[in-house]
């Protein structure tokens, strides 16, 4: 069967207005997800948010762990992770949205997913702006940078609303302020310090989300991608993932999973430079690439990239509000769309899946 990208619309719009609506939405998500496994087609919702589900059936990846798993019995194979679910900033913009994401994940009881998260909302942009302001504002004025206050308030409000202890992000917020002071002292923001700066977004969102899952009784474990084998070139702000990443990530995630069944919550977007060992980023929107890399590393059949649109549309809905969902896309079409800059996913992410085809 030819590989296609498969889309399922999932969530209804205007969710923030009504709690009842959001429950309805999850029921809908559940019913769509189970049927869309059997039938490759678009599920049209009445103008709602959606999930972009990228299916790479028949992937053949030479990862030692995968070969081992093929020889396991039924009970053993049930211990394998089954898919990747990636949620971007817009899906994680507040405590409420995080709760919805948790509900959504739990509405797939048969999945044992690896969760990849971006930074909350517009955190990455705010951190970059804070860094630029720090260059010229003077060390003593760091705490007056609006973007720093915004990031602090957003994360504090989120942990408070989720009922998690602030200590889960306290060290990161302190280090973030220290880093901005350092930038102010040096009066320069290099690509390398830029990557370190934005990494705080993903490091905090994943810690908050993992803590929340644990709080509601769902065992989860947080991972920083740069600590579990995401090895990249030293091209700060736009690093490439190196081949060594695949076996390393598979070994770590799979090994931890079979020892202790806790849902892995992994930072998107981040890696570790192989020469300098400093934190790198994979280019804007790079969490999609983290998701497909993990999918390829573990030899998973499905990578779900959840977005706030009904799948890939005929046009950016911000440009044309009546854009319609595209029911099917071949990998080549998807790659072309991404290559020419459709924000909905990034080219490199599609490219990794392309490598998994028959
Ligand atoms: N052809 C397209 N189809 C769907 N969405 C598109 C398209 N082109 C651009 N977009 C935009 O991409 C956005 C989703 O991508 P993004 O904001 O990066 O999501 P996230 O932060 O959740 O990863 C949509 O909200 C939409 O505005
Ligand atoms: N937070 C990073 C990485 C990313 O992928 O974000 P999102 O999934 O929200 O596009 C960025 O803004 O570029």
UniProtKB/TrEMBL annotation:
Coiled coil: none annotated. Residues 82-354 form the Aspartate/glutamate/uridylate kinase domain. SUPFAM superfamilies: Carbamate kinase-like. Pathway: Amino-acid biosynthesis; L-threonine biosynthesis; L-threonine from L-aspartate: step 1/5; Amino-acid biosynthesis; L-lysine biosynthesis via DAP pathway; (S)-tetrahydrodipicolinate from L-aspartate: step 1/4; Amino-acid biosynthesis; L-methionine biosynthesis via de novo pathway; L-homoserine from L-aspartate: step 1/3. It catalyses: L-aspartate + ATP = 4-phospho-L-aspartate + ADP. Transmembrane segments: none annotated. Keywords: Amino-acid biosynthesis, ATP-binding, Kinase, Nucleotide-binding, Threonine biosynthesis, Transferase. The keyword Signal does not apply. PROSITE patterns: ASPARTOKINASE. One of its GO terms (biological process) is threonine biosynthetic process. Pfam families: AA_kinase. Its EC number is 2.7.2.4. GO terms for molecular function: aspartate kinase activity; ATP binding. The keyword Transmembrane helix does not apply. Belongs to the aspartokinase family. This is Aspartokinase. It comes from Citrus sinensis (Sweet orange).
């Amino acid at each position: 069967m030819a590989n296609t990208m498969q889309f399922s619309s999932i969530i209804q719009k205007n969710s923030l207005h009504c709690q009842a609506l959001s429950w309805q939405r999850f029921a809908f998500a559940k019913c769509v997800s189970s049927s869309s496994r059997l039938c490759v087609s678009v599920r049209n919702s009445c103008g709602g948010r959606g999930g972009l589900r990228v299916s790479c059936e028949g992937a053949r990846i030479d990862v030692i762990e995968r070969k081992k798993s093929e020889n396991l019995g039924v009970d053993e194979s049930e211990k394998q992770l089954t898919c990747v679910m990636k949620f971007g900033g817009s899906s994680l913009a507040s405590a409420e949205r995080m709760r919805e994401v948790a509900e959504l994940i739990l509405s797939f009881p048969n999945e044992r997913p690896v969760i990849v998260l971006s930074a909350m909302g517009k955190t990455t942009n705010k951190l970059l702006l804070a860094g630029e302001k720090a260059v010229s504002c003077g060390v003593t004025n760091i705490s007056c940078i609006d973007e720093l206050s915004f990031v602090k308030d957003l994360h504090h409000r989120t942990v408070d609303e989720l009922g998690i202890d602030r200590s889960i992000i306290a060290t990161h917020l302190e280090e973030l302020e220290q880093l901005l002071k350092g930038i102010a002292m040096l009066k320069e923001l290099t690509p390398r310090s830029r990557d370190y700066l934005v990494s705080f977004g993903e490091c905090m969102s994943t810690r908050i989300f993992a803590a929340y899952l644990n709080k509601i009784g769902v065992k989860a474990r947080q991972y920083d991608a740069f600590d579990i084998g995401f090895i990249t070139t030293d091209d700060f702000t736009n690093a490439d993932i190196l081949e060594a990443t695949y076996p390393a990530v598979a070994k770590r995630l799979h090994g931890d999973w079979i020892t202790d069944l806790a849902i892995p919550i992994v930072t998107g977007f981040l890696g570790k430079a192989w020469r300098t060992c400093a934190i790198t980023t994979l280019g804007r929107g790079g969490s999609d690439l983290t998701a497909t890399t993990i999918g390829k590393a573990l030899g998973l059949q499905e990578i779900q990239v959840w977005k706030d649109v009904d799948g890939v549309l005929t046009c950016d809905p911000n440009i044309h509000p009546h854009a319609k969902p595209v029911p099917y896309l071949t990998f080549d079409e998807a790659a072309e769309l991404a290559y020419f800059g459709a924000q909905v996913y990034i080219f490199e992410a599609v490219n990794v899946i392309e490598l998994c085809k028959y």
